[in-house]
Amino acid sequence: MTFEEIHQRLVAKFGERVGPLAPANKDAWALVQTAAIVEVCRHLKEDPELAFDCLMNLSGVDWPKKNQIEVVYHLWSYSKRHSFILKCQLDRAKPEIASIESVWKSADWLEREQYDLLGINFTGHPDLRRIMMPDDWIGHPLLKDYKEQPEWHNITTTRDSPLDGFVRLDELRKKAAAAGAESAAPAPKKELLQ
């Protein structure tokens, strides 16, 4: 099915709870009302014509100027060989949405990752806890206004800029090239004094 056909089936079933199909550079997507996400996902999986049996990815995007965090669901159907993308917009001050772990088990760790890095609370998740950062880490590192703490348990979190390493490497290469050119140059002839 095309993006348009999938979208038409969703609108026929859910009405205004599914927004218009938004064209994108590569793949079109549809905005879904946050309260309807589990129902829409379950329908996408269980409808035999749609058969979205795989949640390929679940990610989040922080939009501080819009005061939103967007949750993005990339779906795939192995049997039908089609894909679709859903998005939900959450209030940045309290990013909360129902878990879809009951629909696709793959959502378990994907939701935990977004909880850990963006602070999205997936209500109804069976084990919502950090998955990448230590349990006592302060804040959510992928928020655009995140300020990293200078240390964690007396371990510094400050690192050199990777660009500084490239500058040092470049300087070492220049020195090595200069030393190589100097050793390869013929020795100057000394004229004998008479």
Number of helices: 4
Number of domains: 1
Mean pLDDT: 91
The biggest sheet amounts to:
5 strands, mixed
CATH architecture term: 2-Layer Sandwich
Helix content: 25-40%
Side by side, the strands of the main sheet go: 1-2-5-4-3
CATH class: Alpha Beta
Report the order of strands and helices.
HEEHEEEEHEEEH
- Give me the count of strands: 9
What Rg, in angstroms, do the CA atoms define? 27 Å
Choose one word for the global shape: elongated
- What do we call the CATH topology? Beta Polymerase, domain 2
What class, by secondary structure content?
alpha/beta
Fraction of residues in β-strands: 25-35%
Verbal overview:
The protein has about 190 residues and is an alpha/beta fold. It has a single domain, classed as Beta Polymerase, domain 2. Helix content is about 30%, strand content about 25%. It contains four helices and nine strands; from the N terminus they run αββαββββαβββα. Strand 3 and strand 4 form a beta hairpin. The longest helix has 23 residues. The model has no long low-confidence stretch (mean pLDDT about 90).
Question: Keywords for this structure?
Answer:
alpha/beta; five-stranded mixed β-sheet; two-stranded parallel ribbon; 4 helices
